[in-house]
Amino acid sequence: MNKEVLFAKTLEQLKEAAAAQGRVVTKEQVETAFGPLGLDDAQMKLVYDYLHQNKIGIGKPVDPDEYLADEEKDYLETYLSQLHSMPELSPGEREAVILSAMAGDADAQNRLAEACLPEVVEIAKLYAGQGVYMEDLIGEGNMAVALGVTMLGAMEHASEAQGMLGRMIMDAMEEYIALNVEETGKDKKIADKVNKVADAARALAEELHRKVTVEEVMEEAGLSRKAIEDAIRMSGGQIEDLA
Description:
Elements: H1 3-20, E1 24-25, H2 27-34, H3 41-53, E2 57-58, H4 70-83, H5 91-102, H6 106-115, H7 117-126, H8 134-148, H9 161-208, H10 214-221, H11 225-234
Parallel strand pairs: 1-2
Helix pairs in contact: 1-2, 5-6, 7-8, 8-9, 9-10, 9-11
């Protein structure tokens, strides 16, 4: 196994260990894991930077607020102030509500969903800084809770409910982030294609001092007709230098 593959595998194993430990690893774990690779100080700094960027703490959990933009902090402050007006459940009340929710009581399910709203916020903070809005993450988490409280009848014990709801919240947020990344990637590919054709048409138009044809761009830039026509379609016909 070459060093690059071993490095990637070691990093993945360390991330898995962090996930099992509340997104925290010790410095000793990091040094033990990467010791066999013989990394120098600069390379180890890159490892620690990577872990920090992925919200993995060294010795103690990272502060989720560190990854929030100012507008996200403002949104959370307003949102949490609204939640503070809702009555909190004591541990005993929460267990009773969970049991009733498991039995199919709709009012209990609604109360439990409301009680979980602050927890959705705390989980959403763990996913901050990944290219999606905090408001959207919370919305996805809240929908997961609303669905989850209706599915608690499948649980055998009330103690299992919190774990099930937490997993559903995290799964919903992770799926939303993955879809957003996929859509962003598609958008970038489209933009790259349009820009490539637009740049070629602009350069040729400046040289000829007029708008240019598809055939001229094909010949000058070595682009296929399909590539140019696709770019025209994707841009909504807004490539200005094409006749």
